[in-house]
Amino acid sequence: KISLLFFSVLICSTLVVKAQDDPNMGIIPAPVSVKKMPGEFVLSQQTIIQADTPSNKAVVFFSDYLRDNMAYNKQVGIRNANAGSTVIYLTSTGTENLPAEGYRLTITPKQVTVAGKGAGLFYGIQTLIQLMPAERAATAKLPCVQIEDYPRFGYRGLMLDVCRHFFSVEFVKKYIDLMAAYKLNNFHWHLTDDQGWRIEIKKYPKLTQIASQRAQTVIGNYHDRTPQQYDNTPYGGYYTQDQIRDVVKYAAARYINVVPEIEMPGHSQAALAAYPELSCDPSLDYKVAETWGVFNNIYCPSEKTFAFLQEVLTEVMDLFPSKYIHIGGDEAPKTVWKNSKFCQNLIKKLKLKDEHGLQSYFIQRMEKFVNSKGRSIIGWDEILEGGLAPNATVMSWRGEQGGIDAARQNHDVIMTPGSGGLYIDHSQGRLDEEPLSIGGNEPVSKIYSYNPTPAALTTEQQKHILGVQANLWTEYIPTENKVEYMILPRMLALSEVAWTPLANKDFKNFNETRLPEHFAWLDKEGYDYRVPAAFGT
Ligand code: TNX
């Protein structure tokens, strides 16, 4: 409930038409085409909102927004051209020729029209919201304009690692809110790792009883900037299946798909702590990892393990409607497999070349299972080693080469190379001035200038680049504020890499003109962020 006092302050505040001289009118990601026109539309409590389908989820999102930000409480009505007032009309008519996820936004003094189908309508609404003043007010002046817009890439992703540090459902939703505001459409949820298993699996209760908890918490840095320290308090957390369903639904209301990641065969020490029989030597004592890094204890490619992972993935696929299921594949040291009699016999029996062949066999078997359920796998670029699974999509993280090789083999690719500034767990300024982080200095200017289509690929091969993603690993990110600080504003640069046509990208305009306006909005929403210097460092 908004108090009377607050409401009168709202009405009295003077409002400015935003970004007069900015060719992109403050919009991030910069649209395909923006044509300014004279005049303005005044959105007030008298304005009428109409839609082809008032129950459409993008329409519902918009009316919720107006209620929460403008204390606007009128119901959305169906189309009536004779409403006799200023109108905002949300429609899918006339959008036949728009590319997927595209929209048209037309603002005249009498009417705002947002035209788009599905996600397109939602993105048109996001743009409209960005044209409104950041502060809460009962009226808003919108500059007249004609915008036509659609994304450069269909996959626009952001990853969150909830294993090294755990984040609440409430915060995950806040993260998703940010993605939606910037037209990102795939939330990659890194749910299992050596340091913690974070998703409830009914069939395997020890995953949450044991694998979701570690005995102590690291508070130092393994990259030698400070010695590693422990605070001796246990650390843990997981999401129940109901919570997962809730997040998936919340994301879907914002046209965001949630890609779950279940790591295999590596990054699995937490699972082995719960179920040692999935290792190659069950007699050993496995603990949920308490330090960061890469661990030798990985799943054994045994029938027990395959049965376990299939049952886990069955529950995962019931929870996540995503076409893509991420099965990890990265950083799986082969030491244990090399020394295991069982693995060496299996390599002989299957006529494989070596342990890399065995990793490929592992991934291919899991792919077959996932495909049999009508889904597809994504794996980190290590899945190229020993031969790609036939239908796999590759996430290229160790530079672009993995992505280039995969595209040349006619496989789909998502680019997420650390070398492109997409590892946003790295510092975004000078290491001696920034909070503790892993890796080097990856300023906002670097991620902004990343182009996901390598020149080494032909135009035909470039079609396999589905899109781009930034990753937030959380070894040194224990708090929500620090998550926000690390992703902001680099996530906004990512959105422009993923959405905006190359020719429209303009770092100076992004950094100096548009970002400051978005900081005002982020302030209002209560997000933490880092202000880059004029030159983007
Ligand atoms: C590599 S990227 C990892 C993660 C770490 C990250 C730290 C990838 C597939 N694996 O396990 O958290 O580096 O930047």
UniProtKB/TrEMBL annotation:
Catalytic activity: Hydrolysis of terminal non-reducing N-acetyl-D-hexosamine residues in N-acetyl-beta-D-hexosaminides
Domain of life: Bacteria
EC number: 3.2.1.52
One GO-annotated biological process of the protein: carbohydrate metabolic process
Chaperone recorded as keyword: no
Record-level Gene Ontology MF annotations: beta-N-acetylhexosaminidase activity
Top EC category: hydrolase
Keyword Hydrolase part of the UniProt annotation: yes
Signal peptide location: 1-19
Catalytic residues, chain numbering: E331 (proton donor)
One CC-aspect GO term: membrane
Keywords: Glycosidase, Hydrolase, Signal
Protein family according to the UniProt entry: Belongs to the glycosyl hydrolase 20 family.
Protein name (Swiss-Prot/TrEMBL): beta-N-acetylhexosaminidase
Organism: Mucilaginibacter segetis
Lineage, uppermost ranks: Bacteria, Pseudomonadati, Bacteroidota, Sphingobacteriia, Sphingobacteriales
